[in-house]
Amino acid sequence: MRRLALPATALVVTVLVLAPLAAPGYVLSYDMVFVPRQPLRWELVAPSATLPRAVPLDALVSLATQVVPGWLVQRVVLAAVLLLAALGAGRLVPAGRLGTRLTAAVAYAWTPYLAERLLLGQWGLLLAYAALPWIVSAVLRVREGDRRALPALLGFGALAAVTPTGGVLALAAVAVLAARRTVLSVVAVAGTALLNAPWLIAAVLTDADARSDPAGVAAFAVRGEGWSGPLGALAGTGGIWNAQTTLPSRASVLAPLGTLLLVGFAVAGWRPLRDRWPAGVAARLLVLAGGGFLIAAFVLLPGGRAALEWLVATVPGGGLLRDGQKFVLPYALLLCLLAALGAERAAAVARDRTGQESAARVVLAGVLLLPVALQPDLAYGAAGRLRPVPYPADFAAVARIVDDRPGEVLSLPLAAYHTYSWNLRRTVLDPLPRYLDAEVLTDDRLVVGNLVVAGEDHRAGAVRQALASGAPLSGLGVRWVVVQQVAGGLPVPDAALAGLRLIHDGPHLDLYENPLRREVTWW
């Protein structure tokens, strides 16, 4: 039974968080867009007009949905995030009490980091979050010369590398932890670096400018969630830039106190971790976690914002550092491991002072439940915010028409994200580029409050100019124009649709064909 305790705990946590996904439909939240069958197009493998932020993630989803429906793929990957995170963190705890492993498992699967990135829909990054404990575990074996650990290391490294940020984090973890003058360590680092090849090659092939809008630094800056400010939020693994993806419990006056308590336990757990792991490994993990924390907090330092603005505007690929809070990931793992070991020390003290084993169990149980008590609204799909919905029939109808007569599609209103009434008024990335088997033009700018972060697709700029000038869109050369009914959105001007022929008039989507379609130069 003791051997089943950790898997059972991981399963319970997964069910508690993802319970609403028992209902049919798709969870559509910000960047999380799954469709029944995502077409496999070259643009998803190597985007030509934008930077490869979803390479190779989109291509992998397209391949998977050729075999199984998208709703099943979504449930499998989200369940994998929770299960692997909890199991991996629990297994990574050095030899100790079972309660210590369970405490680490629950803590790592119930962090503000996981909650906020889940609501933001960045499930690809969360696969890296789930893979990191397994990567660290495999690296420990590689350092001991165990060649059998290499496949596991590269397998979980590949899981992390489905997004560029995850691949960079996996490479950093292996490079820092496995750095030894052995052939096996060199192979481990080289192999993990090679896993980043898909998005690196796509970045070289794209026509988009690899430099980014410096306005993104302010838009993506770490944000305070209570009276402890941005640093306090980061210490608790929170602080994401999007306030709409932060759970209400994070604004509680008790949240920073809970963070202080967890950090206190983590300080107490440093010595056990250092003593139980091979010499120097705990210090290396501390360096990795500290480096990630520093990247996240760099924008808060004097001159930090100006330096980052120069970096992203000047250095190709520097935009990867705009959303620095995501690099707190290694810190989150270390915090949970140390807090669990610190709770074990506190439990031992309680047992010694009282002479009762039950006292030790009470301490461990209290720390195990602390993350849940501090963030109870992560349960049941973030208090119902992750409820699935069906796509309106309009989407399938429009997809069939476009499949019969292929051509480029323009999606209106021109915005990257839409808020739909049929999606419970939740904001989500425009689903059409993944739903339709055609190149779909949308706006790739990001609006954060009053800030507008410029995108890389020059074609969207031509559409904005045409809309602003009142010129008909028929002159842009697209074959199809889809007008979506969005909650609170501005209507598309009649002048923009002049010359287009209405093909499908639905309650949620209107499809227009352009009889004047011709080849045009966008730049």
UniProtKB/TrEMBL annotation:
Keywords: Membrane, Transmembrane, Transmembrane helix
Annotated TM spans: 72-93, 121-140, 152-177, 183-205, 253-273, 285-308, 328-350, 362-383
Keyword Transmembrane: yes
Protein name: Uncharacterized protein
Organism expressing this protein natively: Couchioplanes caeruleus subsp. caeruleus
